[in-house]
UniProtKB/TrEMBL annotation:
The keyword ATP-binding applies. This is ATP-binding protein/SpoIIE family protein phosphatase. Keywords: ATP-binding, Nucleotide-binding. It comes from Streptomyces cyaneofuscatus. The keyword Nucleotide-binding applies. Pfam families: HATPase_c_2, SpoIIE. Residues 144-357, 184-359 form the PPM-type phosphatase domain. SMART domains: PP2C_SIG, PP2Cc.
Length: 361
């Protein structure tokens, strides 16, 4: 039976490109690594990698930021950082990763050091437009080879509106191990083997700031606690949980790789796109505000395209982005895809959130 890995993500802080950014990011990374249980040697490696990445942003990017966060499995925790910039990009990524490629006063060890120190590393760069990089760091002994990280079928990024520290957008993903909904016994009377499914949710809390964040946090909690397995049932549970809050726009997807289909149901201004290598299908949401006024629900079904991805995002990203304008995007990890879409389509006048699910079909 196919199994899927989904990591819990806990965002810690966004660091904007500024004079103090490398030292601030370095200190926060070292503290975070020690807090989750990495030893002193591994914590220093995390701090070194973050410093190189932050310095690179400071020196070369016209608008760069670094997101620091915790990744968790049931057994362990790791550190991840994601950098997003609208700088000059790199025409030759392999050359930039080689030792000695660093310039203009960086550490002189190049981004190749980040690649070597990380357990998982991914980068996507568009010359003249910008670069997104993601790196994972898990516990390992001094001198040990990279573990390969913990590949997850889903990742996302959220960013608060300029001037706020709380983000009203949130996302969550979990695996339904209970089997494919609608499975029926075969002619012989036995049920077909259970196939796991992936459930994904994105919430855009109404407005922005702490009250919007409370609404989106309530949506995440309800999504994780609900026993419903269908998008409509999950939306009803989230609707009940958001009563008394500002409410929000919410979309829920159920991905069934075993049956090759996607089920999608949304209320409000959350965008869903099912990407294929040569296709793009928009997913419709109904008008309304979850937690306040929600019309009758409708679930849409689409076939999954091999090598494709599901993208869900709030209206903090414009809908004008095109995968064709981001060559090679589908070959990258969900974290890098999400960061690249944030860079390409994110706006500063609203909270922004984007979730990507891929690699399961």
């Amino acid at each position: 039976m196919t199994t899927f890995t989904v990591l819990d993500h806990e965002d810690v802080e966004w660091f904007r490109a500024a004079d103090e950014m490398p030292s601030a990011a370095r200190g926060a990374a070292a503290t975070l690594a020690r807090r989750i249980g990495l030893d002193a040697y591994r914590s220093s490696e995390v701090a070194l990698a973050v410093t190189e990445a932050a310095t690179n942003l400071q020196r070369h990017a016209s608008d760069g930021a670094l997101l620091l966060r915790v990744l968790r499995t049931p057994e362990q925790a790791g550190v991840e950082f994601v950098t997003v910039d609208t700088g000059p990009g790199m025409a030759d990524v392999p050359a930039a990763l080689s030792d000695g490629a660093s310039s203009a006063g960086t550490l002189g060890i190049g981004l190749g050091a980040v690649d070597r120190l990380a357990d998982a590393f991914d980068i996507h760069s568009l010359p003249g437009r910008g670069t997104v990089m993601a790196a994972q760091f898990w516990a390992r002994g001094a001198g040990a080879a990279p573990t390969g990280g913990v590949p997850s079928v889903a990742s996302g990024v959220t960013r608060p509106i300029s001037g706020e520290t709380s983000c009203g957008d949130a996302w969550a993903v979990r695996v339904d191990e209970g089997g494919t909904e609608g499975s029926r016994p075969s002619a012989g009377g036995s049920a077909p083997p259970a196939e796991p499914a992936i459930l994904a949710m994105l919430c855009d809390g109404l407005g922005h700031g702490p009250l919007a964040a409370l609404a989106s946090e309530a949506a995440v909690t309800a999504f994780r606690r609900s026993t419903a397995r269908h998008p409509e049932g999950l939306l009803r549970d989230i609707h009940a949980a958001l009563r008394g809050t500002r409410g929000g726009a919410v979309a829920v997807a159920r991905i069934e790789p075993g049956r090759g289909r996607l089920l999608y149901c949304g209320i409000g201004n959350v965008s869903g796109v099912l990407l294929g290598p040569e296709s793009r299908n928009g997913l419709l949401s109904a008008p309304g505000i979850v937690g306040q006024q929600m019309r009758s629900l409708r679930t849409f079904e689409l076939p999954l395209k091999p090598g494709g991805a599901l993208v869900m995002h709030s209206d903090g990203l414009t809908e004008r982005w095109k995968a064709d304008d981001l060559p090679g995007l589908l070959r990258h990890s969900p974290a890098v895809m999400a960061g690249q879409l944030l860079r390409e389509a994110g706006v500063r006048r609203d909270d922004a959130g984007v979730l990507v699910v891929k690699g399961a079909w």
